[in-house]
Structure formats: C-alpha cells, structure tokens
C-alpha cells in the first residue's frame, strides 16, 4: 500500500520511535536498515540521529510557530462582536478591529469559541396556528376527487 506509507511518512515520529531509532543506530545498524524496520523515511531517521549526535537528546523541539497578530482582548472582542450581531461579516470584523489579520484568523477564533456559521432560512418556520390552519384545509379537501 504505497498510499499508507506516504501518509505515514509525513506524520510525526513519536518519542518511542525516536528512542528505537537511536538504539538501532547505536547498535551499528545502517540508516537503510533502520528505515526499513521503522517504516520511516531516510531523511527522518537521519535527522533524528543527527540531533542525537549534535545535542545528545532525542526530544522533539517545540515549534515556535507564527507570531500572534491579535491579543487575547482582541480575540474576545471578535467573539463578542459575532455574538452580538450574527450577521456580521469577517471583513466588517477586520475593519472594526483595526488589526491587520486575514479572514481565516477571524474564522479560527470563532471556531475556537464554538461559534459556527448559520444558514439563512429558505422559508419562514410555521407557527402553531399556521400548522393547524393548514391541517384543517387539507382535511376539508381530503375526500375531493379530480372534478372537485
């Protein structure tokens, strides 16, 4: 299954797998043998071994990631604005905030607050009175034939 291997190739190596790779390499295994045994790419095995020889640790570094464009206060303001006016658009929120952020950031903040977009009604929901009137109308005409 080449598709399964390709997906596994891009997943993160766990701490246990890193320890196994280092153990195999310390025992004298070649990179290719370790690659075949662990079902990982040569690059991943080589990077793990180089980190071990360079730093003496196999612990994965935490990524720094992109710097935040909004503060927590601005995040709360975005969520509050969406709660107060459900019809507000992302571009409106962006201009109101005055911070240079992309619309995806606004969507992510709203998703983190468990706010989801709502589809507009295609038709107004019927009230109880409307439903009863419709039922009476149908029942009155239920015995009609084609000529009626």
TrEMBL record:
<dbReference type="InterPro" id="IPR002492">
    <property type="entry name" value="Transposase_Tc1-like"/>
</dbReference>
<dbReference type="Pfam" id="PF01498">
    <property type="entry name" value="HTH_Tnp_Tc3_2"/>
</dbReference>
<protein>
    <submittedName>
        <fullName>Transposable element Tc1 transposase</fullName>
    </submittedName>
</protein>
<dbReference type="GO" id="GO:0005634">
    <property type="term" value="C:nucleus"/>
</dbReference>
<dbReference type="InterPro" id="IPR009057">
    <property type="entry name" value="Homeodomain-like_sf"/>
</dbReference>
<dbReference type="GO" id="GO:0015074">
    <property type="term" value="P:DNA integration"/>
</dbReference>
<feature type="domain" description="Transposase Tc1-like">
    <location>
        <begin position="75"/>
        <end position="140"/>
    </location>
</feature>
<dbReference type="GO" id="GO:0003677">
    <property type="term" value="F:DNA binding"/>
</dbReference>
<dbReference type="GO" id="GO:0006313">
    <property type="term" value="P:DNA transposition"/>
</dbReference>
